[in-house]
Amino acid sequence: MPTCPLCACPHSRHFHRDARRDYYRCDNCRLVFVPPEQRLSPEQERAVYDQHQNRPDDPGYRRFLSRLFEPLQHRLAPGASGLDFGAGPGPTLSLMFEEAGHPMAIYDPFYAPDASVLERRYDFITATEVVEHLFAPGRELGRLAALLPSGGWLGLMTKRVTGEAAFARWHYILDPTHVCFFSEASFEWLAAHLGMSVEFPGADVALLQKK
C-alpha cells in the first residue's frame, strides 16, 4: 500500500476506485489520497490550471473567497502581514487582504515562483483550494507553519471528506489535479503534529493557530 503523503504512515487501505484512479485512506490521519503513479505530470497540471478563469474583478469569485477571508480577517491584528500560498493565475485573496490593510506576498509554483518569499516570516498564511493539489502536503504545510510566529494563523480552504458513499459520487474527485482529500480528522492530526489548534468556522474552511 502507498505511504501517506501527509503523515508518512505506511498503513493505508483502498478506499475507492473510479474509471481513472484509485484512492487510499490513511489509517493514521485519515487523509484520502491518489497514489503517486496516478498523478498528472507538471505539464499536464499546468495545462489544467491555465484554463481557470478566476479574476479579481469577479464578484462571484470574491464571494467564494470570503468564506475564508471573513473569519480569518476578524482574527487578525491591524496591519498583520500575510502570504497567499498557491495564489494561481489571478491572485485575488491577497488583493482582498491588501484592501483591508494587510501587506501581502504571493507564491505559486507555476504563476509566481519567487521562492524567496518562502524564507520570510508572516503573521498569517492562506491557501485556498490548494491543499488538495499538493503531492507532499505534510512537508509543504510543515514548511508554511515554520514561517509563522506564536499566535500566527494558517487559513486553509478545501472541501472535506465526509464518508465513503458520499465520496463515490463527489464532484471534487473528478478534477484530475485533486490528489489529496482532507477530513476534519486529517486537519486535527495536522494541527496536533504542528503544535497548533484548529477550528472549522465554515464547511470548507479550517483555521489553524500556532500555539
TrEMBL record:
Record keywords: Methyltransferase, Transferase
Gene3D superfamilies: Vaccinia Virus protein VP39
Gene Ontology molecular-function annotations: methyltransferase activity
GO biological process, one term: methylation
Annotated Pfam families: Methyltransf_23
InterPro entries: SAM-dependent_MTases_sf
Keyword check for Ion transport: no
Protein name: Class I SAM-dependent methyltransferase
Protein species of origin: Billgrantia aerodenitrificans
Lineage: Bacteria, Pseudomonadati, Pseudomonadota, Gammaproteobacteria, Oceanospirillales
